[in-house]
Every structure is written in structure tokens, then in C-alpha cells.
Write a sequence for this structure.
């Protein structure tokens, strides 16, 4: 009975150790990718703003979001507005939707909130609204 308890305790400790290492690795990798691509994402979002300007092609530069000071910066896998289903693996958009890492910048200075998703693989920014 004591040996079973000891084995169970060691198994629990091993599971906690593996979970902690995995969590620390993922957080470190996320921080490193954001640090590496944040400036590129900001530059790409600033450059693509006059063309699409979040649904307002004739917006003045003063009404555009200021991407140099985003309200939040996050790393996600896949572009949320790519119109492709998970089973359409032969689609050209499938990797962009389900594989490519994206740095997501959110500008909360006005409503509706502007969101810029920078595709790290393509090196291109996509602007949307929340």
C-alpha cells in the first residue's frame, strides 16, 4: 500500500513537471515571436492602412488607427477572416487559416475596434473590424 502511494505521488509529480515545462516553453516561444515580429507587424499595418483603412477606402489619414501604439498585441495561429473550412485541405487559403502564425494588433482608440493581423509567413497585414 505504501509503495502504491509512493508510485502515485511520483507519477503526479512527473506530470506536474512535464506540464510546467511545456507551459514555460510555450510562453517563452510566444514572447520571442511577438518580440521578433512586433515592429514588422506595426510597419505592415501602417503601410496597408491607407489602401483598405478598415472598410473605409476614402478615410483621411487622421481617421486611421495609430498602429504604433496598439492597445493589445497577441500571437495566434491562423487568420480568423480567411474563408476556408478545416476539411478543405487543398485550398490555397488553408495554411493561412490553420497553420501560419499571426501577430494580432488591436487599436482601441475608437469604436468599432480596428484589428490588424500580420501573417508572419507571408509578411502581409490584413485589416478587419471587431
Amino acid at each position: 500500500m505504501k509503495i502504491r502511494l509512493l508510485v502515485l505521488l511520483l507519477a503526479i509529480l512527473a506530470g506536474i513537471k512535464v506540464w510546467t515545462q511545456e507551459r514555460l516553453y510555450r510562453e517563452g516561444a510566444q514572447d520571442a515571436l511577438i518580440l521578433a515580429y512586433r515592429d514588422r507587424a506595426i510597419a505592415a499595418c501602417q503601410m496597408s492602412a491607407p489602401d483598405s483603412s478598415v472598410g473605409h477606402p476614402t478615410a483621411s489619414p487622421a481617421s486611421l488607427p495609430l498602429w504604433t501604439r496598439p492597445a493589445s498585441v497577441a500571437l495566434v495561429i491562423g487568420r480568423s477572416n480567411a474563408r476556408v473550412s478545416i476539411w478543405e485541405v487543398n485550398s490555397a487559403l488553408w495554411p493561412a487559416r490553420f497553420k501560419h502564425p499571426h501577430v494580432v494588433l488591436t487599436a482601441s482608440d475608437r469604436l468599432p475596434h480596428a484589428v490588424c493581423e500580420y501573417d508572419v509567413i507571408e509578411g502581409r497585414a490584413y485589416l478587419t473590424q471587431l
Summary: The longest helix spans residues 2-52.
